[in-house]
Amino acid sequence: MRYEYTQNKCVHVFTDCTCIPPSEDHLIPHATPGECLRDCFVVFHLFIGLLLSSFGSLTTTPTALLKIRCVEDRDRSLVLGFANVMAKLFAYIPGPVVWGALIERACVLFQESCGKTGNCVVYDTDKFRNIYHGNVLVLKTIDVLCLSIALVTILVANKKAQKYEAVKTLKEAENSQKLTENGNKEFSYTTV
């Protein structure tokens, strides 16, 4: 082990490492503490993430409108309160615990102190990415599926309601016509 000074910093350099093969750049295998540098084009990934996030948030407004429009005016505040309680009960309270457990599965190295396991120090970034975005994809797919089922149900109910109204209007028109015909036959009006 030797020390090197780079940019006013003292860096430990581990030499004679048998597990590191020699390369063209370094004839003597060596290692330094810390993570390896990564060469990646971050802007493209951020753009794709922003695009997917924007697409995923498109379900927010239809969900709010669904909650408000599917009930009578007097029940709207009750529905919004109930939806808020359900969201807290099934999403906001268990959510961090579930996501933490899922993300912990991508951990490669845990910090240990006094024989106790601590926080994760190093993650497998590929596994982390797959777990995180895979779960978001699954949850958003379930969300869109539920909204699609609700939309189909509403469209079918509206079609049935329109058909019922058309039949009702037709029957009322027939009854009105019969009353008018019967009234004209039974009664004769005279004007004075």
Automatic annotation (TrEMBL):
Keywords: Membrane, Transmembrane, Transmembrane helix. GO terms for biological process: sodium-independent organic anion transport. GO terms for cellular component: basolateral plasma membrane. The chain crosses the membrane at residues 42-66, 78-102, 137-158. It comes from the Eukaryota. GO terms for molecular function: sodium-independent organic anion transmembrane transporter activity. Coiled coil: none annotated. InterPro entries: OATP (IPR004156). The keyword Signal does not apply. PANTHER family: ORGANIC ANION TRANSPORTER, SOLUTE CARRIER ORGANIC ANION TRANSPORTER FAMILY MEMBER 5A1. This is Putative solute carrier organic anion transporter family member 1A4. It comes from Stichopus japonicus (Sea cucumber).
